[in-house]
Specification:
Blueprint lengths: L4 H7 L9 H13 L7 H28 L4 H13 L1 H16 L11 H13 L3 H21 L2 E4 L2 E4 H6 L6 H39 L5 H8 L7 H30 L29 H15 L1 H12 L3 E4 L9 E5 L4 E8 L3 H23 L15 H9 L10 H34 L7 H15 L10 H4 L6 H5 L5 H19 L1 H13 L6 H7 L8 H15 L5
Parallel strand pairs: 3-5
Antiparallel strand pairs: 1-2, 4-5
Helix pairs in contact: 2-3, 2-5, 3-4, 5-6, 5-7, 7-9, 9-10, 11-16, 11-23, 12-13, 14-15, 15-20, 16-17, 16-20, 16-23, 20-21, 20-23, 21-22
Length: 573
Amino acid sequence: MTTTLNAVERVLTVSEEATRWNTFAPRYQALLAADLGADAVPGWLAEWSALDAEVGQAGSKLATHADLHTDDPQVQARYARFLEEVSPQVQRAEQALTEKLLAVPGYAPAPDFALAYRRFQDAAALFREANVELGVTHQAQMNRHGVITGNQTVTLHGEALTVPQARQRMDSPDRPAREAAWRALTLSAGEVAPQLDALMLELLDTRRQLAANADLPGFRDFMWRRLDRVDYTPQDCRAFHEAVRDEVVPLAARMMTDLAARLGLERVRPWDYNRNNLLDPQGREALKPFTSGAELETLAGAAFEGLDPALAGRFRQMREGGLLDLESRPGKMTHAYCQYFPVDNQPFVLMNVVGTAEDVRVLFHEVGHAFHGFLSGETQPLVWNRWSPIEFVEIPSMAMEFLTLDHLGHMFSPEELARYREKQLQGVVAFLPWAAQMDAFQHWLYAEAGERPSVADLDAKWLELDRTFHPFVNWDGLDEGVRAKGWQYYHVFQAPFYYIEYAMCYLAAVGIWREARQDPAGALARYQASLRLGNTVPVPELYRAAGVEFRFDRDHIRGLMAFLQGQLAGAGT
């Protein structure tokens, strides 16, 4: 059964009552008024968790609906009203509930709640009343990025395309066609760049004030505490940037030099480099394994059947339940993500597929997130114990990109599958410099750039970093003002300081796949077991449960790069 848009709309329906604070207020008040001794805490937490899930589900559905309709003012206004009316009151109520919990005499959290309890303590210490309303402003500003980019169009040879559709043309083996697509995309990006420049300056002011209100020296300190980063430091991140620069960038450069030589190119130009889908060294057409979202669903379902029937059943549940929206269309946010509705324990995947092999990889990635939601939701009754810390949360998705590699024979011919597999491995090498650059930019922006950096400062720093991490792309004779706007990316606007986790988890995913080459059943069992742990154990323990180490140091990166080079050369296949 193929999901229709109407089925998606039904899933995302939120009652008018659920957008109003007075719907939830009496239950928060009852929790606050309850007599609470240590013995009563577990039952009281269960009630709070159920209420938190209801509020969270309403907000998640409204947010997703807004992302599917960036051009609908009524849909946008409904979500904005929830953010303005409900979210601030919930933050205040939850701070009061947290203080009530922390004040219970003689209470000691159970082992599976100890981490959540510690995070409650940290969140309570970070809370400031002044940041409640400012947080609404911050969220509204971030949402504006989705509206600006969701309504962006690209004109190519007189045809109006969505951004994902135009990016697909970058995969053409015809170099003039790639260049035309690149120039059309950069022209479109240039049209919205002034709006994004202005929005970023607003965000920087807001983020600076959030930190000041919390009595912290800068936004990096604020986010470090909000994201509960207790297992590594900013200095560890800097060491990671340097390790990628020294260990991975040269490998990526050699990879691109070899590719250019095989294609007869003197140099790699911006239209010759798509880190998500490198050009075919034989100049063949890009892989086009499907033509519609419905076909992709069917093909992916068969891959999951080959991997694990139970996981295939989860995916079938998503298909039949209106939990997938895959097609690219105007007025739809151009990013891809997995949302989660905690009351129903339902994940929802939003994508913008256009028929590429990269779409296949991204679907496996997002459905890996969905499996995490399903499994942790079934085993962890408290909503705070579902999913996992952000340092782990990309492992379920990235590992799924690798675990499905041996189950795609129905989707690709043997030759095509070899190409797809090679691109997946090359993609790790190409991704790590980008991840290091994204993380390094944000460390600079929020801890080193000074009190009020200008747009010119942002552009100059991005240009410096891009020359460091992507020296193999030749921009001679081109407007480097275009290159300097590479920081205008989703995560910089909407998920600040969330990017190094992709690198951590990609390294772990390669490790899981390395184990799966020797023990497929054991690796898959460990993978699923780690997902079920949710948020109940520290990050290093989650990694160990998945069969890997929590490491992103130079020696670890060097070892995994050697493994990838061996796989790319055909060793161990």
